[in-house]
Design a protein that fits this description.
The complex is a heterodimer of chains A (169) and B (429). In chain A, β6 and β7 form a beta hairpin. Chain A has 6 helices and 7 strands; from the N terminus they run βααβαβαββββαα. Chain A is globular and about 60 Å long. In chain A, 46% of the residues are buried. Chain A has 169 residues and is of the alpha/beta class. Chain A folds into 2 domains: 135 residues, Aconitase, domain 4, CATH 3.20.19.10; 30 residues, no CATH class. Chain B has 429 residues and is an alpha/beta fold. Chain B has 2 domains: 268 residues, Aconitase, domain 3; 138 residues, 2-Layer Sandwich (Aconitase, domain 3), CATH 3.30.499. Chain B contains 15 helices and 18 strands. In chain B, strands 4-3-2-5-6 form a 5-stranded parallel beta sheet, with helices on both faces. A 5-stranded parallel beta sheet of chain B has the order 16-15-14-17-18. Chain B is globular, with a radius of gyration of 21 Å. The chains are: A alpha/beta (169), B alpha/beta (429).
Chain lengths: 169, 429
């Protein structure tokens, strides 16, 4: 099991304005949004862009991660670096968009970790290799499992479209 | 067992006698709204159809609305390109509820939808904007979704995997005191619930204060329900809803209304005595950091903003105009005003509000989101402080992470423009 290094720890109520500031909203393409991830945290943004932070690293968050605006760029910009989000809980729209786009998220209400710690996610728990402590995770909404299994909402909807009768036109 | 308003609405939407909290449904969508981010929805929508051999046609163009408001007129060639792409798509797909950059029918999506009669009680309404909660003021179950979710709605005509939410009942009684408004009420509620207190739930508003509140105030209440994490804010429709739809939104014909069951089961009940409220301020950098104006008055201000989908309506401009008429905004503080739609702008002109506000020294801009999310006009400089009637004060929100944003009602904003510091309108000369 590969470990995920915690590269950023953030507090409660981190809004999508922090993750992806509004002034970059004219940029929409998932190939371009990653360059503005956490743009108002210039040091972290630079480390992401330069590749100093390896793909697959982890962000540990408090409660209500991703609150505020529905901008999907806040999800696609993190997905671009294949980041894992381990949060105490996640705001509704962000959670839904994360599942839709296939961003790796774990809801872990009791998580304790600091920057530099190494985490393993497996079988309904997060194991902090650095501190030796384990934390239970909450399952993602069951109703959304079919979307996760399909690899995201686009392939899932595509299947439903193909199952419809073709229009006569 | 009795059902809450949202339960009854969803039961009707899926054609069943009842639905339980937590149940997963896939209701048809009555209205699907996007703004400039329609450009991203289009990308995702076209990707769904890639390789299918099917024509990428939206399920029903009459149930889709697209309104340009976030960056109007375009502030960059990138935005102009997104708007162009969206305009062409709307034309090709036959989307008629399309509001372009125009000085007659343009405006902010959350004002354009109600004022054009696009929203009805009982609707399932989704929007690629978190403040879509606004439309619960007319009895719709209205909530924000991401762009990919919207692309799926455009293809299927229904929204997948909606969990029937639990309901927090908010009961407000008593007369709002002078200089205390719907904005102060919702800020107070958010302060009590916290920014995540209503996560995955809806707010259902009741009580004498709500029943006597005009639709403009109700729109403010439901608009900011999302700041407590609520999926939607809902006001069961009543006489005022029908009056608004007929007299102001031009809706003809019979409008069906219903209310929650008397024995509905609520997650929690929050009771508020409106008569005891004072003007409220949400302090940086979270909307739930709410204090009475008396605790923050005297804070020096660089910029004051009146407008947005929260407080850019005619009665908001009236409050500001009455305070500013014949006065002068203090030097060193700039004031920007953004009416929520051109219809409102024109009415405010007819009534002399625009003239009074402009002659006092405020810059009256074109309807749109303006500086609310820091992407168009009115950005802040380092260490500047803004007082705004908008809905969010997150770090960086008004275009600069080194600036501060305080949120308030139009009365506090206008009174403060005359002094240059946060001012309690009840004490203003």
């Amino acid at each position: 099991m590969s470990a995920r290094k915690v590269v950023l720890k953030v507090a409660d109520d981190v809004s999508t304005d922090i993750i992806y500031p509004g002034r970059f909203m004219a940029t929409v393409l998932p190939a371009e949004t990653p360059m503005f991830a956490f743009a108002d945290n210039p040091d972290f943004n630079k480390r992401l862009k330069s590749g100093e932070i390896p793909k697959g690293s982890a962000i540990v968050a408090g409660n209500n991660f991703g609150c505020g605006s529905s901008r999907e760029q806040a999800v696609s910009c993190l997905k671009g670096y294949d980041l894992l989000i381990v949060a105490r809980n996640i705001s509704r729209i962000f959670l839904q968009s994360a599942i839709n786009l296939g961003l790796n998220i774990v809801i872990c209400p009791e998580i304790e970790a600091t920057e530099g710690d190494e985490l393993e996610v497996d079988g309904g728990k997060v194991y902090n290799r650095t501190t030796g402590k384990s934390f239970a995770t909450n399952p993602l909404p069951k109703a959304r499992q079919a979307i996760i299994d399909a690899g995201g909402l686009i392939p899932y909807t595509r299947k439903l479209v193909l199952a419809q009768r073709p229009s006569k036109k | 067992m009795g059902m809450t308003y949202v339960q009854k609405l969803l039961a009707k939407a899926v054609g069943r006698p009842e639905v339980a909290v937590g149940e997963v449904l896939e209701p048809g969508v009555n209205l699907a709204m996007s703004h400039e981010n329609g450009a991203l929805v289009i990308n995702q929508f076209l990707e769904i159809y890639e390789g299918t051999g099917r024509e990428a046609k939206v399920w029903n163009p009459d149930n889709i609305a697209i309104i340009f408001d976030h960056r109007v007129p375009a502030e960059s060639s990138k935005t102009a390109g997104n708007q162009k792409k969206t305009r062409e798509f709307a034309g090709k797909q036959g989307i008629k509820k399309f509001h372009d950059v125009r000085g007659d029918v343009g405006g902010i999506c959350h004002q354009i939808l109600p004022e054009n009669g696009y929203v009805r009680p009982g609707y399932v309404l989704v929007g690629t904007d978190s403040h879509t909660t606004t439309h619960g003021a007319l009895g719709a179950f209205a909530f924000g979704v991401g762009a990919t979710e919207m692309a799926s709605v455009w293809a299927l005509g229904k929204i997948l995997n909606v969990e029937v939410p639990a309901t927090i009942k908010v009961v407000v009684n008593g007369k709002l005191p002078r200089y205390v408004y719907a904005k102060d009420l919702i800020l107070h509620i958010i302060g009590r619930l916290t920014a995540q207190g209503a996560n995955y739930k809806v707010l259902e508003f009741h009580g004498g204060t709500i029943r006597t509140m005009p639709t403009s105030g109700r729109l403010t209440l439901c608009n900011m329900s999302v700041e407590a994490g609520a999926t939607s804010g809902l006001i069961p429709p009543d006489k005022e809803t029908l009056r608004y739809l007929k007299e102001e939104a031009g809706v003809k014909g019979k409008v069906e209304v219903f209310g929650p069951d008397a024995d509905a089961v609520y997650d929690r009940v929050l009771e508020i005595d409106a008569a005891k409220l004072v003007p409220q301020i949400a302090c940086p950098h979270t909307v739930d950091n709410v204090k009475p104006v008396t605790e923050v008055k005297g804070k020096k201000l660089n910029q004051i903003v009146i407008g947005s989908c929260t407080n850019g309506r005619l009665d908001d401009l009236e409050v500001a105009a009455k305070i500013l008429k014949g006065r002068r905004i203090v030097d060193g503080t700039r004031m920007l005003v953004f009416p929520a739609s051109w219809r409102i702008y024109h009415k405010a002109m007819d009534l002399g509000y625009i003239q009074a506000i402009s002659r006092a020294g405020a810059v009256v801009c074109n309807p749109g989101c303006g500086p609310c999310l820091g992407i168009h006009q009115g950005a802040l400089g380092d260490n500047e402080v803004a007082l705004a009637t908008t809905n969010r004060n997150f770090k960086g929100r008004m275009g600069n992470p080194k600036a501060e944003v305080y949120l308030c009602s139009p009365a506090v904003a206008a009174a403060s423009a005359l002094t240059g510091v946060i001012t309690d309108p009840r004490e203003a000369k």
